[in-house]
Fold this protein.
Amino acid sequence: MLAYAIRRFGQSVFVLVLMSFLVFIGVYAIGNPIELLVNPQADEVERARAAAALGLDRPFLEQYWVFLKGAASGDLGRSFVYNEPALTLILDKLPATIELAFVAMVMAIGLGIPLGLVAGLKPDSFVGRAIMAGSILGFSLPTFWVGLVLIMVFSVQLGWLPSNGRGETMMVAGLPVSFLTADGLAHLAMPAVNLALFKLSLLIRLTRAGTREAVLQDYVKFARAKGLSQGRVIGVHVLKNILIPIVTVIGLELGSVIAFAIVTESIFAWPGSGKLLIDSINQLDRPVIVAYLLVIVTLFIVINFVVDVLYSLLDPRVRLGGAAASH
Amino acid sequence: MAPKVEGPWARFRAEFAESRLAMAGLLVLLAILAIGILAPVISPQNPYDLAQLDVMDSKLAPGEKSAAGRTYWLGTDDQGRDMLSGIFYGLRISLGVGIASTVFALAIGLVFGLVAAYFGGWVDTLIMRIVDIQLSFPAILIALILLAVLGQGVDKIVIALVTVQWAYYARTVRSSALVERQKEYVEAARVLALGQARVVFRHLLPNCLPPLIVVATVQVAHAIALEATLSFLGLGLPITEPSLGLLISNGFQYLLSGKYWISFYPGVALLLTIMAINLVADQLRDILNPRLRK
C-alpha cells in the first residue's frame, strides 16, 4: 500500500510538471497581455517598463524556470490584473465552487441511486419509463441552457429566486458558506439544481443499467429462491454489486462537477473559481490561468487516488498496484 | 409455418422500429438534418446579409410583423435578424461542427485503438497511458484551455473537439479489438498469410464496429452540446459564424428584461437536436448490446 502510494505520488508529480509545461507553452502563445494591461496611450518606454516589471521581457524558458522555482515553494505567480498572488485569488474563490459542487453532488446521489434502482427493477412499468425519459432529458439538456430556462422561469417570470451572486453567507470554520442562511439558500438553489441535473441523469442511467444486469444473475435468483425478502435482495445483493462502478463514477464526476461549475458559475455569476478562470482567459491573466489549472489538476489527482483506494475497499478482488492478484 | 429468413439489415431495422420513441427521434433527426442542409434555400431571409436586415425590426416579439409587412414567427434579435432564419443557419453550423469533429476523432481514435490492440507491448502501453491521462480530465476543461490558447474559429473548435474526443474511440476500439483478436477468424486470416493491414482493416475492424457506432452517435450529440457551451462562454465560434450556442449567448443579455425568444428558440432547436440523437443512440445501444440480447 505504501509502495503504491509512493509510486502514485511520483506519477502525479510527473503529470503536474508535464501539464504545467504544456499549459505554460500554450498560455505563453496567447496574445500579448501588455496590450490589455497598459494604457493604450502609453509610449514604448512605459510598455517596456511594464513588461520588465511583470517579467514578460525575459526568454520563455527563463520565465518557465522562474515559475517552476516559485511553484516549488508554493508561489504560482502574481495576477497581472489584480496584482495579488494567483494562488491566493484562487483559494479565495475555491470554497464557493466547492460548496456548489458538493451540494449538487449530494442532490445527484441522493436522488439518482434510488430512482435508478426503481427504473432498473421495473424497466417496463410507467414509472420506470418516466424516470428513464426524465434521465434522457436531463442528459440531453446542455447545462448552460437549463440555467437560462431556470432564470427565465424562476427569476424573470415568477420572481422567486435571485438570478446571480451568492447571497448572504455565514462563517463556518473560517470559510463563508451560503447554505445556512435563507438568502444564501435562495441564491444556491438554482445553480445547484443546474449543476446536479447532468450528474443525476448519469447516476440514474448507471444504476438502472447495473440493476438490469444484476437481477438476471444467478446469485440474485438464488437469493430470491432462498426466500430472502425483496428489500434484502435489492439492498444487499443487487446494490452491493452495482455499487462498484457507481462509486468509481461518482469519484470521477466529483472532479468534472468542479469543471462544469465553470459554466454554471458564469451563468449565475456565482463568485467561484470557474468564473475567475473565464474572466482571466478574457483578460489574458496568464498567471491565474496557469495557477487555476495546476490547482484543479492537483485536486483531480487527489480525487482519483481516493477513488482507487475506496475501490479496493469495496471490492476485495481489486488489489492496488496489481501485485497480489494471484488467487 | 416455416421461420422467415431475414438478413441482418432487415432484422436491425425491425428491432430499431420496436421503440416508437426511437423512431420519433429518428424522424426528428432526419428533419433537422434536412433543415441544416437546406438552410440557405428554405430560410425566409439570409440572416447574415446586412442588406436584408432592418434595425427598425430589432427585438420584435414572435409573431409580430415588420414595417414591410413580413411576419417574424420566432421574433427578431437585437439587429433585427429573423430568429427562424438565424436558427436554420445556426443548425447548419452546429451540425457541421459536430459531425466533422466526430468523423475526424473517429478516424484518429480508430487507428490508434487498432494499432494498440493489434501490436500490444509498449505501443499499447504508451497509447493507452495517454488515453487514460486525457480521460481523467473533463472534456470541457481540456477544450476550454485549448480554445483559450488557439483563439476563435471553426477550424479551432473542430481541433479542440477532436482532441477531447479521440480518446473515447481509441479506448472503445481497443477493447473490442482485443476480444476479437483472440477469435478464430483472425487466426484463420493470419494462417492464410494475408497482409497485416488487410487483417486489421478487413477482418478485425468490421467486427469492432457495433460498439463504435453507439459511441460515435452519442459523441455527435456531445460535440454539438460542447461546442454550444464553449460558444456560449465566448470561446468557441466567432460572431461571423453563429452556431446555436452563439445565438443563445447573444440573447442572454436580453433575457432578464423579458425578451426570452432571442435565447429560448435557438435553445429549443439545440435541445431537439441533441435529444433526437440521444434517442437514436439509446436504441442502437440496446440493439447492439449482446448482453441484453433476447
Notes: The radius of gyration of chain A is 24 Å. Residues 322-327 of chain A have pLDDT under 50 and may be disordered. The first helix of chain A runs from residue 2 to 29. DSSP finds twelve helices and two strands in chain A.
